[in-house]
Design brief:
By secondary structure, this protein is of the alpha+beta class. It folds into 2 domains: 162 residues, 3-Layer(aba) Sandwich (Beta-lactamase); 130 residues, Beta-lactamase (3-Layer(aba) Sandwich), CATH 3.40.710.10. It is built from 13 helices and 7 strands. The strands form 2 sheets. It has a 5-stranded antiparallel sheet. Helix 2 packs antiparallel against helix 11, helix 5 crosses helix 9 and helix 8 crosses helix 9. The chain is globular and about 55 Å long. The chain binds glutamic acid. Glutamic acid (GLU) binds next to loops. Glutamic acid binds next to loops.
Length: 339
Amino acid sequence: MPNTLHVDYDLMTHDESEKIIREAMEKARQVIPEGKVADYIPELGKADPNKLGICIYPLQGEKITMGDYQTRFTIQSISKIISLCVALEIFGAKKIFEKVEAEPSGEAFNSLVELDLNSNKPYNPLINSGALAIAGMLIEEVSFHDMLRFSRELCSDHDIELNRKVYESEMSTCSRNRAIAYLLESKNIIESDVEDALKFYTKMCSLDVTAEGLSNFANLLANDGVGNITKKRYLASDTVRILKTLMLTCGMYDGSGTYALEVGIPTKSGVGGGLMAVSDKRAGIGVFGPSLDPRGNSIAGCRLLKEISRKLRLSLFFDSTYLGASRIDYSLNQRTGEE
Ligand code: GLU
């Protein structure tokens, strides 16, 4: 197997890719002071804002790892992908989208305005209201321990545990999520026990993961749900398609549009500083950088992904087909001067 990052039009060596990533890390570090760590969950406020790590796991070739890629941090909103993934496998898409829409919300991740004013359903499963609705469905079928086991399997990381300190810290400050959950109950979206759904949701957010584990999960999604090494199918192709589509359109909250334009890789962020990015058919990427931008996305992580997406051509919308073609004179550039 060639020692390359798999971009089918480019036989860039592992060393060349590593150099590009090292330079991107340096650029990304410079924006760390412009962000700040989340502190609305008090325990998250203790994170070191200067941490930054990445693991890129290509479908072909070796992993590229840098910085704090093995540091543990809480998964937070990236767990919404795991919960949705399990829910899709158990209930199927039809049942899920009877409860939750699949539209970008344009509001903050923990908003309840659009839920109360504009719609009776949460906008999508990747914001808090949508994920709480999914939690309400899941608790009737699976235990938290089952979810822990699935999470370990999906991330190929058997050391994932519940971070009790973060869980308790969030449970003691989660009035807003509790309000959303009761609003969902009033609209018959949550039909199970509301407090149990809230605890389940918060426990899922408090799983301790690493950037490397997220890259393993992302690699599985980049490979249509089939294990890169085992060649075993873990997830239905349709589940994977839905996850990637929602990550692209809704994964970065109300910053999803600009992010799609600048990075073009389906990604999910979490306020613990994690990013999980799926460069389809190319690589799974996990990033950790707890200093956040005002929308709650890792500020250095987004910068890092923007840099490497361009340089390694990892965006979904880069196409290799005409890469070698000489520049074409598009007729759009030609003006005749006629009226
Ligand atoms: N546990 C967090 C919350 O519900 C997750 C938010 C996030 O990561 O964006 O507020």
